[in-house]
Amino acid sequence: MAEPAPPTLEVSGLAVEIATDNGLARILDDVALAVAPGEIAGVVGESGCGKSTLVRAVLGILPRGARVPRGAVLFQGADILGDGAAAARGRIGFIPQDPYLSLNPVFRAGDQILEIMRRHAPGRRADHVRRLVDLLRAVQIPEPEAALARYPHQFSGGQRQRLLIAAALSCDPALVVADEPTTALDVTTQREILALLARLARERGLAMLFVTHDFGVVAGLCDSVTVLYAGRVAEAGPVRAVLDEPRHPYARLLLACHPDRATDLAGIPGTVPPATRQPAGCRFHPRCPIAVADCAAAVPPPVAIGGGRRVACPRHDMALPVAELA
Amino acid sequence: MAAYVLRRILLALPALFGLVVLSFVLVRIVPGDPAATLAGDAATPQQVEEIRARYGLDRPLAEQLLVHLRQVMTGDFGRSVFSDRPVAEEIGQRLPATLELTFCALAMATVFGVGLGLAAALDHNGPVDHLVRLLSVAGLAVASFWLAILLQLLFAMDLDLLPLRGRIDVELGPPAERTGFFLVDALLEGRRDRFVDALRHLVLPAVTLALPGLATIARFTRSGVLETLQKDFVLYARAAGYGRFRLAAIYVLRNAVTATVTQVGLLFGALISGAVAVEAIFDWPGIGTYAVRAILSADYKALLAVTLVVGVVYAVVNVLVDVAQGLIDPRVADTSE
Amino acid sequence: MKSLRAALAAALLLALPAGAEAQRPLVWGDNLPSSLDPHALFDVPSQLILLNVYDGLYRYVGNPPKLEPWLAASHKVSTDGLTWEFTLKDGAKFHDGSAITGADVAYSFKRLLGMGKGPAGAFRPVLKSENVTAPDARTVRFVLDKPYAPFLAAMPLVAVVNPRAIEPNVKDGDFGAAWLSGADAGSGAYRIDPASYKPRQSLDLQRFADHFLGWSYNARPIQDVRVRPVIETSTRVLALLRGEIDATDGYLPTDQVERVEKNASTRVAKDESMRVFIIRMNNRKPPFDNVDARRCFATAFNYKGFNEVILKGLVIRNPGPNPNGLWGNPAGLRGYEFDLAKAKAHCDKARAAGAPLNREVEIHVQSELEQTVQAAQMFQSDLRKVGINLKVVPNTWPGITGATARPETTPDMWVHWVSTYFVDPENWIGQMYDSQFHGTWKASSWYTNPKVDALLRQARDEPDQARRAPLYEEATRIVVDESADIWVYNTVNLRGLTKRVQGYQFSPVGSGGELRLMSLAN
Amino acid sequence: MIALRRLLRDPVAALGLAIVLFALVVAVFAPWLAPYPEDAFESHIIQRLRPPSAEFPFGTDALGRDILSRVILGTRGALVVAVSVVLAAALIGVPIGLVAGWREGWLSDLLMRVTDVFLAVPQLILALALSQLMRPGLGTAMVALALTYWPFFARTVYAETRRLRVSLFVDALAAIGMPPRRILLAHILPNAAPAIIVRATIGMGFTILTAATLGFLGVGAAPPDPDWGLAVAESRQHLPEAWWFSTFPGLAILLLVLGLNLLGDGLRDVADPRLRRSRG
Lengths: 326, 337, 522, 280
Known about the structure:
Chain B is mostly helical. Chain B is built from 14 helices and no strands. The longest helix of chain B is centred in the last third of the chain and has 39 residues. By secondary structure, chain C is an alpha+beta fold. Classes of the chains: A alpha/beta (326), B mainly alpha (337), C alpha+beta (522), D mainly alpha (280).
């Protein structure tokens, strides 16, 4: 559990909406989370739950047509949602999901990272090159000087992810946002990259927002975890507590179906509702085995249940039917 | 990269060989009788036969083909059946005019096409986008011979802004010939007046010729940019703080133009075709008019040479396009070796 | 832009050496021949070179054309009509300054016959190379194989060339043809600037001050001429209106005449020429082997509509093969007239005789010559009314003339002009309807009538024009009666000119392109 | 049906469809729509070059024929040329593309080399030369155009076949022992169909333009055929006085080609809904 230091990143009451041909899509609603310095905060949810939008809101790259009707994103105490906040965002590093697709294939890898460095800290190219070589060594890229001149397709997937990590670190960040950085990699490489991330975060005292759909990864890496469902926080708290004893029916079902590696929701009947047609009340209630009429009537607010945990379900202490857990 | 370029060149050779054979077969079936044309208006049938024998037109077709191939290998295109002058020399005098025209048109099409395509993509589904889309489709729909006439009537006859025809003013005279490109030659001899005049003569034909190409390039650039904008690496670059202009004009465009560059190569063929009508209307002394003339007068030697020369130019342009693609996208040169 | 051009012109003036004439050269917008060698071909464009860069022993001058001694001072014919001796004028010089001798003339004829192209056709049947000799420096002698009446009439076809210019450039016994196709070996009033020559694009000519005629007849001859052919007819007219060229070709579309005349700085020179517009019928192919079928076609063409309305009366009805003004035409020759009722009657008669008038008949036009297309379309429209289905086939001169070698490949019908190559009925009726010329485009109606053959051959061998004339008249009557072809009009040569061109004089031979007669107003 | 609805939602594509449908209707009913249907053949020289009026809304041409009628009558020819050329080109190009895309080795190489050769010849020059092959005229021009357009189909189908050949479902079909011919005809061809249809639509526009250019150069349609390109060519020497003579046939070409291109773009968007885009 994290020390009660002022958080590096604080998201509160965040809502994001996008106007589409099929009506207004409420991608995120009333999302709150905080990441303290040195803390690795996990965000878990299945596809379509709003993870990526959360990342984009934090990074200030919401898609065209998206708007934020409510809420705030504070980085080191400064609001970074507005247009003028680009400078404040300078010390946020980003590790994207797919290392194969995230580097422009037609530019040299080194040049792409140097360009990022140049944007963040104007200075002599030679200085940047020297720093970058150090970084590449830190992320264990062999022959870092030569690597600078190579094109992305000349690296393996794992190496590319290391390059991207180096790029994220190149701006000397206080916060690193990682968006499922290991999904596209094979299992062995995944493990290496996670270990590297853990080590770097520890060594550099980084705050890290780690987005994934994989509870296994969260368990091995994160200090705290926030479970998202259909754009809302279902449950949040210290990682051990949440994983050992989930309280929200969604989280319980999720972890119950796959006690070791909860990777998807195949075991839960029904599907995630589309963002344009969210059910009233608790968004999980159509699929919830313990739902009652009230669940459809009002949105259940997240309530603190002690131990730094919050759960958005008034019936969080009800037992689930046995059949569901089988 | 050198190996890649070499490979591209070698790949073009069989196509050129095929072109030589194909054009020979096609052209020799043309029914106009070159011997009769050559003999002239007052010829007797016996004179025609003599001429046929002298030019080897009475030999079997296969034998004529072999002779032709041997001549082509040695760069000898023979003499024009029509004017009795070396075809190579005649084409040499005319090719620069066509190249000057087509390259200017191509440059114009590329610069404006890429610009418009980019502007449209960045304003996706906005007013600029719709305007460019409509203009580019219309650009492909306009018959160039019709447009040429309208431009002549408007800019030369009514407004008296630009010359009607030709490459240079008769009194000014052509610049001393070094490259055959009037713009270059005028610069080489330091004659600004000739340069300006040659440029003014270029405007209308080049615009006419460039329009369809411009439309094509704008469309490809637009879709390329739109496609690229969807890529993860663009999102990543935005997240990592790339500037908006740099992102659009360099980072995205370089990816987006790979498809456009291929089009430039294909367009060149279309440009040469377009040049046939445009050269005729603007009285541009290039190989387009030469080819039409050759066809109309059944001058098969000239026609063979024109097809081959155009084929070579086309092949060269496409090798250049391949090289450009290799430079733009390093994966191309790597994977095809 | 105007001011810019003025500034440029001023700059150019300053750049000129002091005392030089600042006259804008004449820009001649007519076509260039495909070769500058006067012995290589003979067509309408090549007359520009023949008449301006070269001289012949005789020349046609004026309209109607008169045959006048040119390099020759006089000539003598033996009584048997076989031996011709020409005496040369004194002091005539080639462009290189050397004097023109009898040997040079003989060389010219040997070259012509040896090359065997273009104009040689008029001489080869009767003249062998070794029978051209130069007894002395001022005499040249021809001995013909048999009498040939049009010999003198054809004399202006032959340019006298300079052997001293040609001989160093002969390769592989080509008579220097490769070289001369882009060079000058003449003595004419203008000389070629070889550096300026680009085939079919440009040719610059400079006045030859030492021309044998001298220049006393022209006070202000034109110093520089730039020949700049314009490919497209309409571009050519626009260029004339803008003053980019000073002269069009002689085929100005009749629809443009009014416009050129309305323009303040241009005019149209209209001169009756000797160029017959004709619709050929392949007399070997049914239904055209039937005389009534041919008459049916001849009465279904709307001569008046075409000549008066479409061509705006700028041509003259020509009822027979020879142009109206020429000798050898029967007095009061009446051609066919447009009368669909009569046409129907002819057709019915032909049909009764089994002529296949229901088949689709093809008419080949020269698609780049608008008039041939218009005539065919109008004809097609009228023939429909008598139940004949005419199909217009666009073709080209080489395409058609290549096909006229055999009757099976010769089109049913085609449209063309017969221009003046030499001023003699032989140029028209002689070469068109004597069956010995079958296989040439001129005889492409494949008309065969032993009586006409006999008349035409007799006329060819008869040196006395007074005795030849009735023979041609008789032949003409027969051919017209049998409606061998459809003769439509005799051309009025229409050349657009800028008004600064003065002294322009037309002759059917050369179509008014004799530059030596012209001058420029400033 | 869904495709049609999606097509209609794009106003630009709907405009294209409307133009093409309009042209089709005009072409089918041309003899009834044209005020003077016999003006396809008949000349009336007395009334030549009349400006637009109530009697002749588009004026008359140099032989006194009603231009409106001839523009209407010319629609049929333009569409017939476009459809038959593109169909013929597809019949040559598609099988070649399929075979070359499916096979590996020399046959594939050879076919694509031949395709390249045809691509390297400038289209119009080849078409001109071929037009002289038998005799100039619309039929020859159509043969020439088909012979120069098939490489585009071959290229398109080749690329599609190559793409689909390595896809999983083709592997699966091959694994269960389906013969290549059936895979090509029953599975790859239908999948390549959208690309072919788009190519064909654009090709029709292109063909109309090239055929008009051939007509303009005098080796395409033969007079008195009411061909649009021919009309523009005939009108040249009457410009600018008889402006109506070239304007209406010229506009007809523009409009029909525009319609076909817009429709092609729209079809492409429908065929490829991932991204609403328009490529040449």
